[in-house]
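Continuing the batch. This is chain 6 of the set; chains 1 through 5 are on the previous pages. Same settings as before, nothing changed between runs. Recording input and output for traceability.
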Amino acid sequence: MIRSKYLKFLIPLALIVICVYWYYSSIVISGTSENRMWKVTYSKNIDPSEPTGWEGHLTQKNNDNVTVKAIVVEENDKINTSIDSFVEGRAEDGEITVLHPFSADFHLGPKPSKGTVVSVVWEQDDKTHTDIVKIR
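Output for chain 6:
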């Protein structure tokens, strides 16, 4: 008797958790660089008051003092987006850019394909580095 009461509670709860996970995983795609310094997240814009599409966001995962020189997005070996100028603050469209640790939006458009590669060109101690983030 008690067991059936628990099952009546646990089965709907498990279904709700599965549905929430499925919904969230269908509107967010991400990838991390090999050195775990950079994370790229694409999220589907579901706010009806804003433009529709997928928004890309680059985040620095550590607190090292680096200068990002460029973000290059390639899909199917073709450059889709290239940004090489970053100004800290809030833009007119509401995008917020933070330089240390780095955090910026870089894309609003169609859903990225599985072959999307984001290159982050950054500089530290007068040495230039390039990290690759593959979108899954």
